[in-house]
Amino acid sequence: MIQPLPLFWQRYSCRRFLNTPVPPDFLESILEAARWAPSAGNLQPWRFFLVKNREIQRGLAQAAYGQEFVLEAPAVIVVCALPEVSAKKYGERGRSLYCLQDSAAAVQNILLEAVRLGLASCWVGAFQESAAAQVLGLPSGERPVAIVPLGYPGEPMPQERPRAPLEKIVRRIE
Ligand SMILES: Cc1cc2nc3c(=O)[nH]c(=O)nc-3n(C[C@H](O)[C@H](O)[C@H](O)COP(=O)(O)O)c2cc1C
User: Fold this and answer.
1) Domains assigned to the chain
2) Which run of H or E residues covers position 121?
3) Where are the alpha helices (DSSP H) in the chain?
4) Strand 75-81 versus strand 120-121 pairing type
């Protein structure tokens, strides 16, 4: 039996989207995937902003140094970490590491669920944090970690997808 290609392999960073709207139940399914990510102590120290608003998207695109596809995507999810929630239980390690790892796990779930639904996305991490926080009206305890534009792909998977060989990146200990 031919197995379908794994989701992790089908995923690629897509920076052009069709105008076609994303069905609302797809977006709910993606948010659900984010909710099921693992988190240290199961604290779930995150908030997810689902943005389908051109003006807010324009502000986010500006905060992201003019990455226009943030504006052009039919929907955007911004993943925010709650450092003080993690710090309460885990101190500095929670504040500066766990809450970010937790949010990163949620982002990856978002990216993979998008692929499963035939959508494309891009993890946008290059943005001015204070500007993005202002655009979203975040309280001081919420830290924007990733901006994820979502939509139907307007460009194909690139032919070249460079990855270091396993020999270079794996140390085997037996
Ligand atoms: C933490 C992080 C931040 C990133 N920030 C950006 C970004 O700001 N803009 C962008 O176009 N891509 C961004 N990317 C996507 C990477 O460029 C991309 O994942 C990498 O080149 C590998 O390509 P692939 O995702 O197509 O496999 C980011 C990825 C990660 C994990």
Assistant:
1) 7-154 (3.40.109.10)
2) strand 120-121
3) 7-10, 24-35, 54-63, 69-72, 83-93, 99-116, 129-136, 166-169
4) unpaired
Residue 133: which of 66, 70, 59, 77 has the closest Cα? 59
Helix (H/G/I), strand (E/B), else coil: 28: helix
Question: Which pTM was predicted?
Answer: 0.98
Measured from CB, residues less than 6 Å from any atom of ligand 1 are 12-13, 15, 67, 122-126, 161
* Distance between Cα 12 and ligand 1 center (Å): 9
* pLDDT one-digit tens code per residue, 23-63: 999 999 999 999 999 999 999 999 999 999 999 999 999 99
DSSP state of 6: P
Specify the residue with its C-alpha closest to ligand 1, atom 29: 123
What b/e readout covers 66-78, taking b as 16+ CB neighbours within 10 angstroms?
ebebbbbbbbbbb
Per-residue pLDDT reduced to its tens digit, 60-80: 999 999 999 999 999 999 999
State which amino acid sits at residue 156: P
